[in-house]
Amino acid sequence: MTVGYRVGALGFLELGAILGKAYEGSGNNGLRDQTLALRWVEENIAEFGGDPSRVTLAGESSGAKSVAALLASPETRGLCHQAIIESGGGQTVHRLEDAEAVTRLFLSEFGVGPEAERLVLTASVPDILAAQARTINRYDRAFAFRPVIDGRFLFQRPVDALSAGSVRNLPLLIGTNHDESIFFIAPDHAETPIMGRDLANLAPEAVPALLGAYLRSFPKEGIAKRKLRLLTAEEYWIPTVRLIDGHTQAGGTCFAYRFDRPATSGRYEGFVSHGAELPYAWGNTLDSAISPLIGDRRSAEILARTINTAWVSFVATGRPSCRELPYWPPYGTQRRTMLLNDRSVIVNDPGSEERRIWNGVL
Fold this sequence. Notes:
By secondary structure, the protein is α/β, with parallel strands linked by helices. It has two domains: 1-50 and 90-168, no CATH class; 176-362, Alpha/Beta hydrolase fold, catalytic domain (Rossmann fold, 3-Layer(aba) Sandwich), CATH 3.40.50. Helices cover 41% and strands 10% of the residues. The protein has 13 helices and eight strands. It has helices at 8-12, 16-19, 29-44, 62-72, 96-107, 113-122, 125-138, 158-163, 207-217, 223-249, 278-282, 297-317, 352-357, and strands at 56-60, 82-86, 94-95, 148-149, 172-177, 254-259, 336-340, 345-348. Helix 4 (62-72) links the parallel strand 1 and strand 2. Helix 5 (96-107) crosses helix 7 (125-138). The two termini are 34 Å apart. 40% of the residues are buried. Keywords: Hydrolase. It is an enzyme of class 3 (hydrolase).
């Protein structure tokens, strides 16, 4: 089943400091919506043939970040038993003071003082969405509205909670795509400087040193390629590696993947963009909007069946497996990762040189 939940300002605007105790924790209302759905599943899914003792929580992108946050919260203990995290991570959250700064920015769209507070409480949804858009445009980082470490629903970053063993008994199927951030880089910005708004987790002042390290490690690559590498690593790959490493070192089991099959036409030709794995995981590569991107249809259909079967196997048994795949071992200390492509292989610590660039940075 799929879940709808409040997003943006409606789901992640922390109003406690402005509107009082009754609004404390409102910065995680979107996660509370998801938790309510999990409670509904626990109470009702057996009536639909489901097993409330074997619930798999799955998400991609912001959904994957939500999954990590839910796993980190005491509010969801016992409500899920394994998880699939596609292109997420466990670091894109606000400290309470940062969330309150976003709230002040949002509130300024309605004026100042008590009148602004009154207007926020009586604003229509279109007015809230308009103020949300203006707030995002004025905010100096990516993702103005995100989960909040509020001491009520979240007590620490998801990566820190999992590293402390909060859900070490839950197996994870988790990974990223090779060129995630190509999805967000406009063609005419491929070689422009990296700005704060490009970054989800990293402080802008850390960028120059990182770019220097990338230049030394990959001197034959152009500016656009190194920018793509850095932004993909900053938002998706390194946060995911940190989550996998933390969960594994705490005694948990992770099955790691990287999706490597590139698009064969269109804007992302030759790249494996954010979301590229979804048609394969869901088995809908024949969709008319997707099929022009996949190239050879027969091999794409085979890979889609393979990935879909592996995902279903994980849901059913806690282990991803398929006859068309090599044996998929847990990640472990060797960082064993399945590279999913027309010919899928297990590789130890893929991208190790680039990963080491980020040691101590993120």
